[in-house]
Amino acid sequence: MIMERIYITDVAPRDGLQNQSVAVSTEDKFTLISKLVDAGIENVEVTSFVSPKAVPMMSDAAELLPKVQNAFPHLNSFALVPNLKGLEKAQEVGVKEVALVLCATETMNQKNINMGLPEAIQSTLNLIEQSKQLNIRSRTYISVAFDCPYEGETPLQRVVELARQMYEAGTDQIVIADTIGSAAPAQVSQRIDEILKYIPQEKVVIHLHDTRGMAVANAWAALQSGIRWFDASVGGIGGCPFAPGAAGNMATEDLVLMAEQSGFDTGISLPKLLHAVDHAQQALNKSLGGGSMKWLRQNVKAAAPLNLNTQKVFT
Ligand code: COA
Ligand code: ZN
């Protein structure tokens, strides 16, 4: 039987690390990315070209990105840019793909990039256009696509409109983001079903956080609705500095385990992914891992093929 493939982007080096209190060296970030690549991860959000005053952890972007691109030419590595200045800085070091952020509410845009919603829409459209002209791919996050920490539930029609507008402007992927991790599976199905009426399924990515322990259930709902692209963060590292209450991202290992056990191919080795978790734990000096971590630690011991349906200890 040919297993259907799903595609995972690990966002730990950017979304995961941007809110950590411990400083992480460029070398440690590079080692973490190397371990992700070794585990089979094909897409990584490496860093962001943002104001170093706003997010000090990302101030080594111009050093880290080319280092990663040179070391792993086949890796789809990309960087977040909040504005034209960020795009220019990223272009100077040869970025091939950028992530753009459009928050779906007025207040969240103000808090994140100091712009209102209409300005942010215009700015994102300009960035999509500029990227195209520079031959740089783009993925556009529709942030707070479920709930906003400042404005409550985000109107679905607005999310659909923004996603559609950015897609029609030519961005390569639309990332529907549950930035604060407040969504439940029924809502995920409802919102994704609506969005997929207007945007082809292979262009839509879901970005989940695990604040309420529902990320994997939400990923399953998205899978059932036809989504095949997922963002996740190794060890579940994460949290947005501008969105109070946002906890870690969906842990990559939780997603891989759920998807493989459900008959999907991820191309990712769980034992090797655990080496990446080990490195992140060391770098951040704290224990990490999603809801499956305890079970994985006990059952996944080596890079042998896994029979995920049994409770046996794998060696
Ligand atoms: N990269 C580096 N520095 C930047 C920059 C960028 N992309 N954009 C602006 N700056 C610098 C300016 O040069 C200026 O520096 P100065 O104070 O030394 O003169 C300072 O930031 C303020 O610039 P300004 O144009 O007035 O922007 P702002 O104050 O409205 O800030 C952002 C806008 C978006 C750059 C800033 O708030 C930011 O980087 N936020 C981080 C967003 C983020 O990472 N969110 C999480 C991901 S969703
Ligand atoms: Zn996020």
Summarize the structure.
GO terms for molecular function: hydroxymethylglutaryl-CoA lyase activity; metal ion binding. The protein is an alpha/beta fold.
How far the N terminus sits from the C terminus, by CA atoms, comes to: 25 Å
Helical stretch tally? 12
CATH class label of the domain at 22-230: Alpha Beta
Which architecture name of the domain at 22-230 does CATH use?
Alpha-Beta Barrel
Mean pLDDT: 93
Largest sheet: spatial strand order: 2-3-4-5-6-9-10-11
| CATH H-level superfamily title of the domain at 22-230 | Aldolase class I
Q: Considering DSSP H and I runs of 4 or more, what fraction of the residues is helical?
A: 40-55%
CATH topology name of the domain at 22-230? TIM Barrel
Described by strand count, sense and barrel closure, the largest sheet is:
8 strands, parallel, barrel
- Which ligands are bound? coenzyme A, zinc ion
- SSE topology string: EEHHEHEHEHHEEEHEHEHEHEHH
Shape: globular
Strand content: 15-25%
As residue ranges, the low-confidence spans are 310-315
The helix/strand class is alpha/beta
- Tally of DSSP β-strands: 12
Estimated radius of gyration: 18 Å
Explain what this protein looks like in three dimensions:
With 315 residues, the chain is an alpha/beta fold. It has a domain at 22-230: TIM Barrel, CATH 3.20.20. The chain contains twelve helices and twelve strands. It has helices spanning 12-16, 26-38, 61-71, 84-92, 106-113, 117-133, 156-168, 185-195, 215-224, 252-261, 270-284, 293-299, and strands at residues 4-5, 7-10, 43-48, 76-80, 97-103, 137-143, 147-148, 152-153, 173-177, 204-207, 229-232, 264-265. The strands form three sheets. Strands 2-3-4-5-6-9-10-11 form an eight-stranded parallel β-barrel, surrounded by five helices. Strands 1-12 form a two-stranded parallel ribbon. The radius of gyration is 18 Å and the shape is globular. The model is unreliable at 310-315 (pLDDT under 50). Bound molecules: coenzyme A and zinc ion. The site of coenzyme A (COA) has 18 residues, from helix 4 and helix 5.
